[in-house]
Amino acid sequence: MFYDLVNRNSKRNRKENGMFFISLIVSIVAFYIILSLEKQDVIMFLKTMESQALEKLFILIPVLYGLSLFILFFLVYFAGKYQLERRSRELGMYLMLGMKRSKLLLMLFAEELWNGILSLAIGIPVAVFISEVISLVTAKIVGIGIIGHSFSFSISAVMGTIVGYFIIRFVAIIILSGKFSKKEVIELLSDSQAEKKRKINKTVVTIKLLLGIILIAVAFTIAITGLSWSSVKLFGITVILGLSGMFLLFQGIGVLFEIILKKKTNRNELKMFSFRQLQESVFLKPNTMAISSLLVLMTITCFAYGISVGYLFNSKEAHITDYTFQADEEEVKAVINKLDLNKYIDGFYDMRIGMLYSDKFSPKGLIKAIENQKDGKDKEILLNNIQVFDSPYLISVNSYNKLLELQGKATIELKNNEVALYENPKFKIGDIMEGVLKERPSLSLDGQEYIIGDKYYSDSLVTDRLITISRGLIVSEEVFNKYTKPKNVSTYWNVTLKKEFVKEKGLMQDISYVNEKLNTTEINYESYLQNIGRELFLTVAASYTTIYLAVIFLIIANTVMGVQFLMHQQKTKKRYVSLTYLGASYEMLCKSARNQTTWYFSLPIIVAAISSIFAVRSLFTGLMTTTMKGHVSKLMVIAIPIIVVICVVELFYMNFVKKSSDKNILKLMDIKREDN
């Protein structure tokens, strides 16, 4: 009998509060994925080259796990509080019929345990499946290949998920049961009353609204310009300004809210009732609305940043060079022949780079062209850099043309008095250089003027870090030989693999295979693995963690908003019942409740969506890698649609809450029919 009661109540609770049950399953999936990260193909691949950096990432994972448990505890607590308040009369009736309070508490614990087991039974398999899909997708994207994938199942991740999940659920139910046990039967049987309406001083709230907007604007300005990222103190000040601004904004937003609604409100179709309901849920709880908006803001920001960074890595221009050897041509060819690697090689060419030895070099013409550009931060930085551009690297045009030919690009044709500018994409400063080169500036070399071409070049000269050039000059063979000395010239031999070989198993496996052969010799080389390994780590560290946090914040933000609204509706249910006696139909009540839901969700979501544009831009300023520096505009173009997509997801969740509200109103109509 007791078991049947627990089973029946658990089933009803899952049905009536499905959004909470689904949220818990999603949180289980998120827990498992972050805890099993070490078992994913991309991480196992990275261990071979970025082990120290990964150790730091793995240290961060328990912190993320603990933070997630802490935040999700409040989700479970508020949802549990809503469930107990909704079942207040039912629990009171159990006591009235003679059930002991201890047995009633045991029933609540049993229901919680049963729902927990069911959610884990659903969540763990889903989590393992999604984890495998993520592993397969990332393996395919980075070139490891599906052949290199192996199924992974982390027992430690499962145990960590189960333990953490039950801890937050049982701690929440213990606290709620403690409060519940102090209530008398008469208190449980009586309906809770709505909070009393406060008096609102429009002048004060208007000042709060304006002050909130100003503080938020100041906080984002400091963050976007980079000042807040220069020290912990300034970062803390920025956060305080932003949080204070958000709370003041919602404490003052009631003025605009009341003006807008009063203009649209008349006395028919329960619009005045809807307006009064919203006055209580918004005006009386501005801090709750502010917290909800902050959670949505963090959700959108983390998603937009994480997905943009991940997309940038995966959409970068395909590389050309797979290997770079720093040795004599004869030595390189001897190693290739000895290891029988010719059948895998498609291209083999030299990259000649030398340091200018002449002291008579002047970039005054280039500096003058920069000074003619529009004033700005990029102009100032570029001027400072060019002023120390006094001994540039010279790059052989023949070598560079071989690199362009492999990419199918047009080669460089230089006249006797022409040079081309090379800019490393990692050190690119905005798009200002394009405007500079349109003026066809010149520079002086040994008293002779050379015109700079109207296009700059930024292809990777070698595979990784054998040489790093921020800026250099691509010059003719005659100029190269004239202004470099043999001892200052470095020749790098670049190798590309055949496309047929790469397609067979994937780029990463093929390079690893060739690496194993090359490691049996003492030749000095670098492969594309070093470069992609470093970029992959940055993608994993930035993209994976922020997207994980975004999922957690999404669950919490939506559940908190949904539960808060339904709790307010539960507290004011007597008003709905009274309206039914006055002739209000089920459709009219549902329309009123749906309008309330729309306004209740729209306010924090709209504020969060607008703020997220500036928040994402702030993250691109503060958490920017060298690869991202020249792609901020592209990142923002990617981030904006993501913000829109998350807002659409919020609309779907809003519709889900509306359906839950309709069910609650239908129950009230059933109660009224029973009373009649």
Short description:
The chain has 25 helices and ten strands.
- Cα radius of gyration in angstroms: 32 Å
Helix segment tally: 25
Structural class: alpha+beta
Cα shape: elongated
Write structural notes for this entry.
By secondary structure, the chain is of the alpha+beta class. It folds into 3 domains: 1-190, no CATH class; 194-319 and 529-676, no CATH class; 327-523, no CATH class. Helix content is 68%, strand content 8%. The chain has 25 helices and 10 strands. It has helices at 2-16, 18-35, 41-46, 51-86, 88-96, 101-142, 155-181, 185-189, 202-225, 232-252, 254-264, 271-283, 286-314, 329-338, 364-371, 377-386, 397-407, 432-438, 477-483, 499-505, 507-518, 528-571, 573-581, 586-622, 632-675, and strands at 323-325, 345-355, 361-362, 393-396, 418-423, 442-445, 448-457, 471-475, 489-497, 525-527. A 10-stranded mixed beta sheet has the order 3-6-7-5-8-4-2-9-1-10. Strand 6 (442-445) and strand 7 (448-457) form a beta hairpin. Helix 13 runs antiparallel to helix 22 and helix 23 packs across helix 25 (632-675). The longest helix has 44 residues, at 528-571. The radius of gyration is 32 Å and the shape is elongated. The mean pLDDT is 76.
